[in-house]
Amino acid sequence: MENENLIELYKTMLKIRMVERKIEGEYKYDEIKTPIHLSIGQEAIAAGVCAYLKKDDYLFGTHRSHSQYLAKGGDLNKMIAEMYLRSTGCSQGRGGSMHLVDPDVGILGSSAIVGGSFPLGTGAALASKLRKDNRVTAVFFGDGAVDEGVFHECLNFAALKKLPVIYVCENNHYAINSHELQRHSEKNIFRLAQSYGMASEQLDGNDVLQVCRHAEAAVNRARNGEGPTFLECITYRWKGHIGTVDDVGNGYRPQDEHEYWLSKCPIKWFAGYLRETGVLNDELDRSIHEELEQLIEDAFSFAKNSPKPRPEELMNHIYAS
Ligand SMILES: Cc1ncc(C[n+]2csc(CCOP(=O)(O)OP(=O)(O)O)c2C)c(N)n1
Ligand SMILES: [Mg+2]
To answer: Which of 5, 53, 82, 282 is a good FRET partner for 34, with 20 to 30 A between their CA atoms?
Structure first.
């Protein structure tokens, strides 16, 4: 990868982290009127996969979609306005954090229904195949979504029809409080996809360069008509399932497990790699941080100064025109 692309990748990961840290900090003021699921610690997956998607490729996300939306190039101002449920939000203030959409850059929606991204994304990939539009669809989901029957139906169909789709599993080991070992008879999720006859790999989701290598191969496979790819990306969410708490201790996640994963910070690791290879230095890093801080400040003031939907607009946007 060229140096400038490596820096772009770093910026994307850092942007996700800084945006979510800002949301976390603002949440206590109770002006953000939406449940939030933070993806701090998981940034490398969306950043690495989306680095190989074109603007008009499609993406379908989950309840934990901030990273996916930002990595695919979703508009930051509209995303933050959506957190504040303003008319200027990406879902006109009707959706909140779990319903992010930006069709201008191929983000056709995120879904609060666990497993909801499978049929939507598989259907979009079928449409692309029928239309011969050469688009690739990325379907993001968590390890919890693997427990849904629709996972199997969609993987079978996509493999059978050789659809141009990439299934991206953000395996952070937990579905709310429940560990994957308590839920899965097959302990390696990627093997389930293999059984449907599609290319399927398990990888370190905190190593953005590894994600990139697999994403590039998957996108090429999809574009060349060779069918779907399944990427099981192993990671960890630093925050609790929902909101700003950590969910550590109290019989939920062990302290030592949490600490281990904090030490595997994907951004710290990548910054270290970029410095070692001479791509990043103090001055550049400082200017990237400053640029992002400004962007985020601007997005929050745009959101806070935007109008709320008016009562008489209640029935708008219910049906597509
Ligand atoms: C069909 C359905 N069942 C249950 C829920 C409640 N729920 C919301 S998030 C979640 C856990 C999802 O875990 P995972 O897919 O691993 O994603 P993560 O939160 O770890 O990113 C559950 C069970 C839901 N939203 N939809
Ligand atoms: Mg999970």
So the answer is: 53
